[in-house]
Design a protein that fits this description.
single chain, 281 residues, seven-stranded antiparallel sheet, 4 helices, elongated
């Protein structure tokens, strides 16, 4: 048995019944578990197994009791463990009537089924999943238009393919050869945060890949990404005259780059169509 509380105050004692395998979840990961909660006299007050439905929640975000937020992050896939939580890590002096009396120490038998990173995409399609490895500071995230300073290591199938740093305006990553998935993840990150980001090919280099970086077509990539710092963009009403002129010039440049990109793609597809037509002759 081991104390897994961050404070090492004996608040969460963990006893492994079945060993798991692999890594453990990070703050913000969605985990899927089965559990049975008991009082110290052995009486059951709740069980997901009785409902025949896995319990899912984002760990480390306050959606569950403190004992779970701190204890679940120590569990591997397939692991079964008993978490014994003192009152201050459970329901405290008030308890949870009618089944949990005040100042109750609770035992939870927990089975870790699965976990995955926070889905950063607007469509929740799983294309960009983020798992925090080093927590950031502050309450805000960079919004589009912010100037961000980042560094990353990119790998494919455990093979490191790129190590870079960059400073750019969020939303203009394409001009700096930064894949869309990186920008999508940055919108969910805090200053100083490091995260493991899994980027599906749709949000990376697509079916074409990147020959220069040895990224094959349709490759899903893993980034160890750090948001070193960012300077939030001002809203238009916050800008003085000089700042508005500078912002207008940036918008103009951004638009011109997008037009050039569109023209390039248009030319590319025209060549494909011509090639196809000649092939039919």
């Amino acid at each position: 048995m081991v104390d897994v509380s961050k404070a090492q105050d004996g608040g969460i004692i963990k006893k492994i019944l079945t060993e798991g395998a692999g890594d453990t979840p990070s703050t913000g990961n969605e985990v899927s578990v089965h559990y049975t909660g008991r009082l110290l006299d052995g009486s059951v007050f709740d069980s997901s197994k009785d409902r025949d439905q896995l319990f899912k929640f984002k760990v480390g975000t306050g959606q569950v009791i403190k004992g779970w937020d701190e204890g679940i992050v120590t569990m591997k896939r397939g692991e079964v463990a008993i978490l014994t939580c003192k009152p201050e890590y459970a329901y405290g002096a008030s308890g949870s009537p009618p089944k949990i009396p005040p100042n109750s120490t609770l035992e939870f038998e927990v089975e870790m089924h699965d976990f995955y990173g926070e889905d950063c995409t607007e469509s929740s399609d799983g294309g960009v999943l983020k798992s925090t490895t080093v927590a950031g500071t502050g309450l805000s995230n960079p919004r589009e238009g912010a100037t961000v300073k980042i560094s990353w290591v990119m790998s494919h199938m455990d093979r490191e393919l790129e190590k870079r740093s960059a400073e750019f305006i969020l939303g203009d990553g394409a001009a700096h050869d930064i894949v869309p998935g990186i920008e999508t993840a940055l919108l969910k990150m805090k200053k100083g945060e490091t995260a493991k980001v899994t980027v599906k090919s749709l949000y990376a280099y697509g079916n074409v890949g990147n020959a220069e970086l040895a990224v094959p077509g349709a490759a899903d990539l893993t980034y160890l990404l750090t948001l070193e710092s960012f300077e939030q963009a001002k809203y238009k009403y916050e800008m003085d005259g000089a700042e508005k002129i500078k912002f207008a010039e940036q918008v103009k440049q951004w638009y011109q780059r997008r037009v050039r990109e569109y023209q390039t793609f248009q030319h590319y597809f025209k060549q494909i169509n011509l090639s196809t037509e000649h092939g039919r002759c």
